[in-house]
Amino acid sequence: MDKTERFPQDVSLELKDGTITVDGTPRFIIGTIIHEGADLDAGVSSTGYTAGDAWFYEALPDYPDAQRLGIDSFGIVPPRSWRKRFRPRALPRRNMAAIKRIVDSGLPLIGELAIEDYSHARFEIMDGVIPSVRCWYNGVEHGIPYSIITAEGVEFWKNIWKTDTTFYNSVEAEPFVYRIFADADYYDESAHAGRVFNSYLVAKYRNVDEMNKAFGTKFRTFTQFRQQAHSTNNVLAHVEYIKFLETKFAEACATAVETIRDSGSNTNAAVCFQARHLNNNGIDLYEAAKNMQFLYAPNENVNPLLCSKYMTAIAEGKPVFAPDANLAGSASKIRNSILSQFAHGYAIVMLSEWRRGARSWIRYTKNAAGSTVLDKNETENAGKLYAQKHPYHFMNPYAVPTEAITGIRTAKKDILKAGALFSLVNFKRNTKIALLHSRPSERLSRTSKAIETDYTSSLPGVIDSLTFSHIKNSIILEEQLGTTAANELDIIVATESSYATYSETPEKLEDFASAGGTVFIFKHALALDEYGNASSNIFTSAAGWTDADIDGIKASRLDIGKGKAIRFEEDINNFADVLLSGNYTTPSCQCIDSATGNRAELVEITVAESEDGQIGLILFNRKSNPVSVKISIPRHSSSAALNVVTDENLPRDGDFFMI
């Protein structure tokens, strides 16, 4: 193995501009987590692979094995020894000798503190037995089994984080990041949380009169307000309760950072969490991310472009874990799934899930001599059934063929060939269009004031339209308006997904336009305030607007200072065509289907632009059939283009390069 392919051992990771660097060189990290029980597969023989591949299936990897696989980082779960204080039963058996191979590998480690659904660290409430019943709650719960709102619950979590962190000290491991929650979402509607909400209201508004003055309401007591908080018909109280839950989650994240740093050997330890959704019940990802040093994208099956653009936007320069990569199919499919995460600007991807589960499907029989031996036929049948139930347990050879695993290392080698040009800061360079993201609209979507948006006019639809027309685009949050991130843009787009906004958002958009920017307002956008009331602002009023026809779409125009606003009065099917036909922007590259001469719209292209003018492209064909394309870069002339994977120059056709 070439030295440049090997991940250096025992090195410190440096974080800069959303990228991880090692010895000054950017490294995209491919890792996996050894979850509870996966270590017990070590030393167990089964069927489905050859004797020559037993090193892979029958042991946890040391450094050479990990590098042969193409994996550069591992997550390790602590034994949850704190559990014995509350439920005096023996802890599950662990194969510490196997785990030590990973610890001693010198590769970056992740402290996996998250409590999974199947974990023995998740136990039932018992009245009159510690911990207090106030450590549990009623309502939506995923990945957060204990209360993060009550004082008793927070103390319980601190006990968990402190004890689990000290485990890594005991095995002489120093994780570069700890994950405190995985796949997390919650909505606590317990009476315990209600009382804390009452205190929250008192601290925020001091007295009921002040709250009524702020909201224009006539509540007699905070308790009366609290009692309506779970009704989606009482929009004001429900939205305020969601904001309360978001505040408590962000506080819990800050507490976790403090506790972990006080308990471990690294006083600057990095911490992250993974939410279940982009739009969660009681988690404002942007607010909670302020306390984190890494971010971790949700695994939910949403538009991958929306997910990556949103996560890198809220990260504001912090590295982001990609959604976990479920390994399936051929080696090329596995390679491509990893490369997709790299092209979307993530810094790390974790492969899911390292587990063979052999002890669950091995079958034995008696031979003629009466000895117990492996029943190969029955074991094979049982292994295939297990694979059907757990298709992403990639250590099961019946779920993912051994040959397909080679796609991991192929992806790693191709990413290394791409080099430093393909970094997040270069992906974002010269991005002049951003789509507005609205947390108020997400909160309101859980109430009776929710507005159902059309896909082509809402955030994910417009992202697809722009991206597959090869127009660079990003996401900007309402909270980021008026900052450097906004000042570097030419265009901000408020889609139907931003139908409700904070009170100050229209004014910030007006300032952006006044300074020379263009604001596009979709039908229904900016119509409501964060509590569902009609919003009176410059973009919803009739004053000063003149009729306009934008690519055949009925619209209005308002000149604002040096810039303007365009308000659409009807739905839009393809926003990219509107921008291109009106000469509001140009594509970052021109990609033509060689067979038809038309724009190759189902080819996704990530364009990297270095500070010195070097251009790099990552192309993905999202069509089901192969396609030949011609590529050119507007305003950029080059005599040659190199395919870094094959190390071959691309053939030319005039100003185009052929692929």
Can you describe this structure?
The chain has 659 residues and is an alpha/beta fold. Among the domains are: 430-581, 3-Layer(aba) Sandwich (Rossmann fold); 590-658, no CATH class. The chain is 31% helix and 19% strand. It has 21 helices and 33 strands. The strands form 10 sheets. The protein has a 7-stranded parallel sheet with strand order 10-8-6-5-4-14-13. The protein has a 7-stranded mixed sheet with strand order 18-17-19-21-25-24-23. Strands 26-29-33-32 form a 4-stranded antiparallel sheet, with no helix packed on it. β32 (652-653) and β33 (656-658) form a beta hairpin. The protein is globular, with a radius of gyration of 27 Å.
Mean pLDDT: 95
Tell me the CATH topology of the domain at 430-581: Rossmann fold
Oligomeric category = single chain
- Specify the overall morphology: globular
Could you give a short description of this structure?
The chain is an alpha/beta fold.
Q: What labels describe this entry?
A:
single chain, 659 residues, alpha/beta, Rossmann fold, seven-stranded parallel beta sheet, seven-stranded mixed beta sheet, 21 helices, 33 strands, 19% strand, globular
